[in-house]
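Fold this complex.
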Amino acid sequence: MGIAPTPGIPQAIPARAGLSAVRSARGPEKPNYLAAILFLLPAAILLLVFLLYPAIYTVLLSFNRGRNGVFDQWVGLDNYVRLFSDPDFINLSTFPPSGALWNNVLWIVFYTSIVIFLGLIIAVVAARVRYESVIKAVVFIPMAIAATALAVIWKFVYSPDANIGLLNAILGAFGVAPISWLGDEHIVNFALIGVGIWGSVGFATVILSAAVKSIPAEVIESARVEGANERQIFFRMILPMVSLPISVLAVTLVVNVIKLFDLIYVMTFGGPGKASRVIAFTMYQQAFQAGQYGYGSAVAVVMLVVLIPIMIYNVRRFRTGAVT
Amino acid sequence: MSRSTRSIAVIALAALVVATACSSGGNAPGTAAAGSTINVMSLWGGSEQDSFQKVLDAFKTKTGVTAKYESVRADYATTLQTRISGGNPPDVAIIPGIGFLRQFARQGSLKKIADLGIDPNSLKSNYPPGILEIGQVDGTQYAIMVKFNSKSTVWYRPDKFKTFGVQPAADWNAFTKLLADIKAKGQAPLGLGAGDSWTLTDWFESVYVRQAGPEKYDQLFSGKLAWTDASVAAAVDTMKQALKDDYVAGGVTAALGRSFTDGIGQAFSANPQAVIYYEGGFVGGIATGQTNTALKVGESIDWFDFPSINGNKGVTIGGDVIAAFTTKPGVKEFLQYMTTADAGSVWAGTGAVISPVKSVPATAYPNDLAKREAAQVANASAVRFDGSDLLPSGGGDDMGAALQDALRGKTVDWAKFETSIQAKWKAEK
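Structure:
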């Protein structure tokens, strides 16, 4: 109960119970299939046209050369073979590995963990100070900025010229030479991840803050009375009690990372060279810039395949979360 | 019934159009197409859109045909392709690059210029050599170039040059010496915004057309010469003689994170860190209009020819071509109008672009910078179109990425690049 993301589920059970109660009161009745179909039809048509059909089209296209988005030549698994032997997509022969897929791994590891870490810290700490709402508002402001605008702002912040870029101006004040945040292949991904974190911490804070607040005060109080110190309360009480919201948050963030496109497009266009490309950007680039829709579709299918287990986990977790 | 009457009307109208075109040269006001409306799609916005609107207005006054302008700012090629695939193309559109021109032409979406009732041979005298050919696919005229800019202009600060006691350089050796001289005075000479990788493809093309010559240039950018050819690596090496940490203000790595416009700012802002910036003729308009309105042409901003290499002075240009997707009444008139000095003069009068039409008088250009730019191209021994725009779609981005790699000291695998570009050429056919 009380966990924000699952309000609908507990109510579903009494609703169904109510229906069967009505049914048994009226006695056995032939189920009205026509009505059921009519009610389901609008949603089914929408799903079919806008979700299922494009998905199947994309999968089929990925086995095709797909010039200009039409089926012109069946190539079997060629696109996939090409994709996984393309060092710009994934290159495991160097250390550290490189390529678009690897960059997504970097994003998942650093972006997800740091966003959750900072979000939790801010949620817990802000709850103990008087200006909690002010702090939360400030942290949340980036959420109100469109990702594209966020990217443009940070492009300025990261400018390699100290008279334009805020970061390099600060470094300059300490006598440090300017750093090319977006022009150095070893830095660029982390610079971009930094922007992503800045933009998402507010979201994490709000979700986790609500979760922390929902922990009954008596539970914490009684732990204190029993002699638990603050550290124990955090690690043994708060953390386990917000583990479900954290996992929901983690899944949301991971899905965001796999879909990530706008920041890269605006800030670096995948550069320098191809150092900051991610899979969604690669898909866009191959399909819409280079006109290789078949190859681009193969990238899209890889994205889908990566996302499916996460979605399954997510749905399962929702169910178990609703039960316990 | 209504359908058949309409098609009869169309045929009648078309016959009338041909008749009037024959009798009056197609330029008389109130042609048979008068009153019709065509839609024209392009990716121009802002001041470019304003300029184009002037051309469209002049066209309407002249012919009575309304050309409705539709601006698509983002993902232009995708939008255009989607509309073509969906059977709803615009009547006329500017084509986003020559790779797309070939693609649209070969898939049969474009109307041939001849199919519109315009004899391509009759246009020849309107253009300097090499210009009409840019709009040809497999020898057939599909498109017409309407505006362009030189990409062989090296922008500099005359005031700073005076202070340092240096002169613009005519050839490459003098150019590298110029860079060294400026550096010796304690000033980083070059601005560079290589985060936008097309600035590097422009550098490469300017060097390549001079060092390897126009013939090899044609072969390389038509897929007939492999990128593994020694001339490619040699041109990159030459480029890097100028684009190195010593000469680029802030260093090469910083430049890779800097946008094209910030690169202009390095040389032409109120607080400049460099004194030279190479890019096309459009730099002048951006620098004086946006970067720093206090700039004075001839005093604090000017340009010289991209230095010759081995005596070669070929000029590279970048521009836009326009083509028809339908034969609706008014389309022919529109394309024909775009080839006239009238339309060319309206474009030229904006001061930002050069008209390829030969008969546009020098007086049509409102300022000296544009006048000289037009003269540079008109007098060039060889004019070549921006090579990265000639590559199959996606090739230009790959080329830019490869050059970014080259600049940051990575060895570029040109064999791999060649394989991928050949695959793209093959896919086009």
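The longest strand of chain B covers residues 315-324.
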